């Protein structure tokens, strides 16, 4: 596997340097990726800036048609994309294929939207019209857990709205983004999309660049705060999709056997490396033991292994740094709680952690307070609904959450009291392309997906005309 190149001004070019990309299932180098230096970052931004006047003046239906072409090109190579995603990210191949399919659907979805001027008011004295104009150069910065689809929910609406893009993936998962760059080189006018790769060193230069109008960022809350600081110099537009510590609340009327598999999937999807995974589970006292037992059984039955091996249900942790963090959470779980299932790393090469269920752990434990971003789920007991809602809300995060009950009206009432951007009832992790997704509190600013996710890449201009 060789030959990956950056995309700058329509040309696929070698990096000024290189970095090793590790396969997390083996811990060994998969291939080298090109690494941009500061001069290449500046060239990429300059190319995007130069492409902006023509691209933004291109009629929207033409831009939409090119998005569809991009979607088709990804679809034609979906098998290769999925395999590459599994190799660099670790997720099981069927889940990688799902991510690629969702990425194709995302590009197609945004290609169906448009941005017509809206008449806000018309009377005898005035006509007020709102127009949506593109912003300019968008920096699209993505993390390593869903490197492809999180890129598409930025590139799709940014391009449709008439912006140009500089994309920067996480250094541990750059390959699928570079491969997407190859398709952009074939399909889009030069400079409309540029792809650079760094080693976690170019973020400040990109997010502080005077010629970048907007930063669309997905990553941790800590990095999101730095992005905001950096972007302040030129008051850039920001969309920040950040960390979460989603609580799921299970009411007493739930059948543990029926709900446990769905709750387990909501916590362990992508080896727990999802911003909106269930990260704290609160279960009513009356069914606490039964739910813990069911989750423990599911954890013991899960097939953990290399995502390329058929039958693998859970892959490794994506990178060594995160692996070390998750080991720290396992240690915390052993010290402060009782391990129902799992609790250890696998004795093999790669960054594998057993899916782990932890019970009888106090609210102040690190595993409960912080975002574990791994397959280690704390299960907490409650008896009073007001008390559990306040425990669920006692966090700086506010991304998602869920309520589980056979009484949907009661569940709705509880859901409405959770301070998060999204709250599900009897499910978790269900994100629709046409449904805006946004974090509350320190989980983010602004929305992605849906019409809001498109308008976030525009500046509204009000034209107020006398009659
Ligand atoms: P991270 O914040 O370490 O990195 C994210 C991206 O930011 C990477 O591309 C990285 O290279 C870049 N970066 C690093 N330093 C930067 C800087 N100073 N300025 C600009 N960019 C910089 O996050 P991660 O570890 O890759 O991803 C995991 C985190 O992402 C978790 O907290 C998770 O919850 C969050 N996440 C959120 C969502 C969401 O939609 N809210 C989705 C997926 C992941």
Note down, in words, how this protein is organized:
By secondary structure, this protein is of the alpha/beta class. It folds into 2 domains: 6-242 and 441-466, 3-Layer(aba) Sandwich (Aldehyde Dehydrogenase, Chain A, domain 1); 246-432, 3-Layer(aba) Sandwich (Aldehyde Dehydrogenase, Chain A, domain 2), CATH 3.40.309. The chain has 15 helices and 22 strands. A hairpin with a 3-residue loop joins strand 5 (118-122) and strand 6 (126-134). Helix 2 packs antiparallel against helix 4 (93-111) and helix 3 (78-89) crosses helix 4 (93-111). The radius of gyration is 23 Å and the shape is globular. The model has no long low-confidence stretch (mean pLDDT 98). The structure holds nicotinamide-adenine-dinucleotide (NAD). The site of nicotinamide-adenine-dinucleotide has 29 residues, from helix 7 and helix 8.
Quick summary:
The protein is built from 15 helices and 22 strands. With 467 residues, the chain is α/β, with parallel strands linked by helices.
Number of helices: 15
Fraction of residues in helix: 25-40%
Task: From the 3D structure, determine the CATH topology of the largest domain.
Answer: Aldehyde Dehydrogenase, Chain A, domain 1
The beta-strand count equals 22
Walk across the major sheet and give the strand order: 14-15-16-13-12-17-18
CATH architecture type of the largest domain: 3-Layer(aba) Sandwich
Would you identify the CATH H-level superfamily of the largest domain?
Answer: Aldehyde Dehydrogenase, Chain A, domain 1
